[in-house]
Write a structure and sequence with these properties.
Length: 723
């Protein structure tokens, strides 16, 4: 049982080789009740009793090279595409492994290449007939006959995975030298499938010291392919292209009634990135794999329970097929999910997961030598990580926190250890005070995109919350929402088309670049969909568009909700039409709290107001950057971009209340200082005022009746007050 007090429990720490004595010091200092191992190190038997729970990492489909080498044709596979190669004469030879790392992947010629490979004329999009190309296994080349000069060609080929990508990353980062490269094997093969379950029983019998099996993770790794320099070539944390195999493709055809082409997974070399509007074939494949994975993972969980242990899933690495917001996940019966916390968005992604007994967040920094080296101060990253994630914890906490890596590295930094000990104490205080109660939410906000609930809190991610120039402008929307006093859900275009818009939704947010899954692309050409959304706004709904919302060129508009938004974007086709409306308002409800110039991130150019009544809130260098518009009984707000900052979080909050026609209700459980927020737990009869900065702050705090009181907060302080 977890002890619920303020100095002990709800914390997991790692350890490593010959470090038990020092580990016990840290256990005491942090009040940890669980100890875990790390990739590359196994816990010694004497660890039993050192903490109330011992976690052991378990790899279902890697870490057993004896089996992998003995069953080399049952290794996992992936679909890959060559570079685009230009034909300058009537035949063309393509080196298919050019640009790939031959220690990670190897072409599969064991299965019929003419059945599973595909050669495409990328200039025309036509598939080259199979009798017009041949594979030379010795030279690892494909030769194409009767090519069209000056056309580009690619080869889509099935390859075996020789090295697990996560172990490869850890191997390179930690300089593991001659440590064996772990080969991943595929549960789709009957022989390997049987072995996986037998091995699970055997491992549990041999490890009585382990209380929690930390599956890292199950069968298929997200798409992570390295180039010939052993550096990342392609990464998509949601990618399914490395869950493919000859067996899976044949089984898919039996189950779904049609044959998948390689192109359905290669997708022009985009590999169905989460930014792509998903095709029916790709969604069918996702569903197919999720059914298989969840069914077989349930068997592993049942075996774990038979042995009296807990089953915990790491949300990462080989997590494909176990998406926690998918329709099969809750049937698995997992006890817990643990994931890496990069910010407030990823915290909520973990803490909201349904169907498990508890959730755990692994905080940063990871105890690896790329952070813990002489001259660096890891406390800086730890402080930023905690303050950022804490906003989200106040709305929906994980049940446990922890750290990963090698404790011997962190031990050399006493200032860091002291700081995270305070973090652990503060987390326990927050958790106890919230006591499982939902905080006050003034509005219900729905984020609309192609993925909906399946990718809750996961929009615009590439490699699990890493920063990219093209996405920080939109990641800020989720990051702001993660700590705001609103109820958040994620809905898809199909949800609206099939079920309408739920009556409890106050505001819909559509954010993203044109053509992406997050803006919607051609989904906005669906007449039934567009009319349902327009009707909903017109009858009193609130709509917020960020970037290029509802964007697809059709009917004389680029924004298909341009009439509701009151703005559109000039693409160069309507330059002959004068645009008269450029007058910025002196002030507006949405920007009442603004203290400095607004950061719109990468922003947008050439957005303009369609009518005089469009309320232009921000306008610069001929570009409309923020506006509002009345549409029947409803309202819409347009924002050119919203990277995360305290000020932008406040702009989004006020935008939501304005769009919902509920401005008068804003100042309930509210702080007027943008660096502060209020979370009220009415059932617990407590509220908290949070300083999200590392500086002293003065603010007026409004209670549930809108009565204000001045308050002074120390840097990063949380002040708890009885209602």
């Amino acid at each position: 049982m977890i002890k619920d007090n303020l100095k002990h429990g709800r914390v997991t720490i790692p350890t490593d080789n010959d470090f038990i004595k020092e580990t016990m010091e840290i256990v005491e200092k942090l009040g940890a009740d669980a100890i875990r191992d790390c990739d590359g190190f196994k816990l010694p038997k004497e660890i039993k009793g050192a903490a109330e729970k011992i976690y052991s990492t378990y790899f279902v489909a890697r870490g057993d090279n004896e089996w992998a080498n003995a069953n080399i044709k049952e290794l996992q596979q992936t679909y890959l595409m060559t570079n685009h190669i230009l034909a300058t004469k009537d035949s063309l030879t393509i080196k298919i492994m050019e640009g790939y790392f031959d220690q990670q992947v190897q072409p599969d010629s064991y299965h019929d290449v003419k059945e599973f490979w595909e050669v495409i004329d990328r200039t025309t999009g036509e598939v080259v007939e199979i009798d017009k190309w041949d594979y030379n296994e010795e030279n690892v080349t494909v030769t194409i006959k009767e090519t069209k000069k000056w056309h580009e060609y690619t080869v889509s080929f099935l390859a075996y995975c020789l090295w697990d990508p996560t172990q490869m990353y850890n191997h390179i980062t930690n300089n593991w030298g001659d440590k064996p490269h772990e080969m991943p094997f595929d549960a789709r093969n009957a022989k390997t499938n049987k072995y996986i379950f037998e091995a699970m029983h055997k491992w549990l019998d041999e490890h009585p010291e382990t209380d929690v099996i930390r599956f890292t993770t199950f069968f298929y790794h997200f798409t992570l392919v390295f180039n010939n320099l052993a550096k990342e070539k392609y990464v998509d944390w949601f990618g399914y292209s490395s869950s493919v195999s000859a067996e899976a493709l044949r089984e898919f055809e039996k189950e779904k009634g049609y044959k998948l082409r390689p192109e359905h997974l290669i997708d022009n070399g985009y590999y169905n990135s989460t930014f792509r509007v998903p095709t029916k074939e790709y969604l069918d494949y996702i569903d197919f794999q999720q059914q298989f994975v969840s069914k077989n993972v349930k068997k592993l969980v049942d075996i774990t329970h038979e042995h009296g242990r807990e089953a915990m899933m790491f949300l990462g690495d080989n997590w494909i097929g176990t998406e926690p917001y998918g329709k099969y996940f809750e049937n698995i019966g997992l006890d817990a999910v643990v994931g890496s916390v990069g910010n407030g968005t990823t915290l909520r992604m973990i803490s909201e997961i349904p169907g498990v007994k508890y959730t755990e967040g692994r905080f940063l920094p990871y105890f690896f030598p790329d952070t813990f080296y002489e001259g660096n101060d890891p406390t800086i990253e730890a402080r930023d990580n905690w303050i950022t994630a804490r906003r989200a914890i106040m709305r929906k906490p994980v049940d446990r926190i922890g750290y990963g890596g090698y404790l011997s590295l962190a031990y050399k930094f006493p200032k860091f250890v002291e700081y995270i000990s305070r973090v652990c104490d503060e987390f326990r205080l927050i958790y106890n005070n919230i006591n499982g109660n939902k905080p006050y939410c003034g509005l219900k906000v729905a984020v609309l995109n192609c993925w909906g609930k399946l990718r809750s809190w996961q929009t615009h991610m590439v490699a699990h919350a890493l920063w990219y120039k093209q996405i920080y402008t939109y990641l800020g929307v989720n990051e702001a929402l993660s700590g705001m006093s609103v109820d958040v859900s994620f809905i898809s275009f199909d949800d609206i088309k099939n079920n309408g818009i739920s009556s409890d939704i106050d505001v819909i947010i559509n954010a993203g670049d044109a053509g992406t899954a997050f803006s919607g692309g051609e989904k906005w050409l669906d007449i039934e969909l567009i009319t349902k959304i327009k009707e909903w706004i017109y009858n009193g709904g609130g709509f917020i568009g960020v970037g290029e919302p509802s964007a697809v060129l059709n009917g004389g508009h680029f924004f298909q909700l341009s009439d509701a938004l009151g703005v559109d974007k000039e693409l160069g086709f309507s330059l002959s039409t004068d645009k008269y409306f450029k007058t910025k308002l002196d002030n507006h409800f949405i920007t009442d709290d603004i203290t400095e110039s607004i950061d719109f991130g990468e922003s947008q150019k050439n957005v303009y107001a369609l009518k005089e009544s469009t309320e232009i809130i921000s306008y610069k260098d001929g570009n409309l950057l923020m506006s509002a518009n009345s549409y029947g009984k409803g309202r819409s707000v347009y924002i050119a971009g919203l990277p995360y900052s305290p000020q932008n979080s406040r702009i989004l909050l006020r935008s939501c209340y304005y769009a919902a026609n509920k401005e008068s209700q804003l100042k309930k459980w509210y702080a007027d200082n943008i660096n502060c927020e209020v979370s009220a737990y009415l059932e617990s009869k407590k509220y908290a005022v949070i300083n999200n900065s590392n500086e002293n702050q003065e603010t007026i705090v409004y209670d549930g009746n809108g009565i204000g009181e001045k308050m002074f907060l120390a840097p990063a302080e949380i002040r708890w007050i009885e209602i």
